[in-house]
Design brief:
- It contains 13 helices and four strands.
- With 274 residues, the chain is α+β, with helices and mostly antiparallel strands.
- It has three domains: 3-109; 113-203, no CATH class; 204-274.
- A four-stranded mixed beta sheet has the order 2-1-3-4, with helices on both faces.
- The longest helix has 21 residues, at 89-109.
- It is elongated, with a radius of gyration of 21 Å.
């Protein structure tokens, strides 16, 4: 998302901040529900992003569609988005998704208690999202089941909850949204996007580290310290054991990838010989 759409989303996120200290999962679910309606109708998306219509006209359309069906906060957020300018019909849906996920993340952040393991609600949310992705990525049958187009949304959500039975309610909402309404993405990619939003809320970056076997506690600590020093901030490490790498390590932070695995070196050698 760029240009005018990015500006509209930035303004919407700034306006949302005032609601986040009192946010509820119900608000997030209502916003995801509105997203489902918008995504289901190409005509509605065009009407909401038509530059020839005034912002007031588009906001009125949202109020007409959802008035009395969702809370006042959800209606205000959606009508505010409709009244903004968007570069493409998809962008308003992407913005709704981001705002709904931000509400869920805020609910986790607002939890005052720290768990017995010493982590906050926001950290627990990130861990639950990572656990789901690891469970899916480690099993090809689960990957197929989660992406099966003939399976019902309810069946996918039920499967997802079985994969992470101890996940928080906040994590279940985001994971359930990802498997039931991935919006053209793999569910794990959307879950990773949600995790990145949570990490951004903590002003942290995520480092996805792939290794052939689990690292020791000492190795993990050294890796954490090295990455923190390299990037100048605390990173959240998402460890992934991938025997296919053969040996070495692969680290991805955002779009930047450091691949020191044997598999990568073999691929480089193959390209040189070709």
């Amino acid at each position: 998302m760029a240009g005018v759409s990015s500006e509209s989303l930035t303004a919407a996120l700034a306006a949302l901040e005032a609601k986040l200290p009192f946010a509820s999962l119900q608000l997030a679910k209502e916003l995801f529900g509105i997203l489902g309606t918008v995504d289901s109708s190409a005509g509605l998306r065009r009407a909401l992003t038509d530059p020839s219509r005034s912002g007031d006209e588009k906001s009125a359309l949202i109020k007409q569609l959802f008035g009395g069906k969702v809370s006042a906060d959800a209606g205000d957020i959606a009508s505010g988005l409709a009244g903004s300018r968007w570069a493409s019909a998809r962008d308003i849906g992407d913005a709704l998704e981001t705002l709904a996920a931000s509400v869920v993340i805020a609910v986790a952040e607002n939890k005052s208690a720290v768990s017995a393991s010493g982590i906050t609600g926001l950290e627990a949310l990130e861990n639950d999202l990572f656990s789901f992705n690891q469970a899916v990525d480690s099993n090809h049958e689960v990957q197929r089941a989660v992406s099966e187009p003939q399976a019902s949304a309810a069946a996918k959500v039920a499967l997802a909850e079985k994969l992470v039975p101890s996940a928080s309610e906040e994590a279940k909402v985001l994971i359930g949204q990802a498997v039931s309404q991935p919006r053209g993405l793999k569910a794990t990619k959307l879950v990773r996007r949600f995790a990145e939003l949570a990490a951004k809320r903590q002003q942290r970056w995520i480092a996805t580290v792939s290794v052939t076997r689990p690292l020791t506690e000492t190795q993990t600590s050294r890796l954490q310290a090295g990455l923190n020093a390299l990037y100048g901030r605390e990173l959240k490490i998402n460890m992934n054991v991938d025997p296919a790498l053969i040996g070495g390590i692969r680290i991805q932070v955002g779009d930047e990838v450091v691949d020191a695995s044997v598999l990568a070196r073999l691929g480089q050698l193959h390209r040189q010989l070709a």
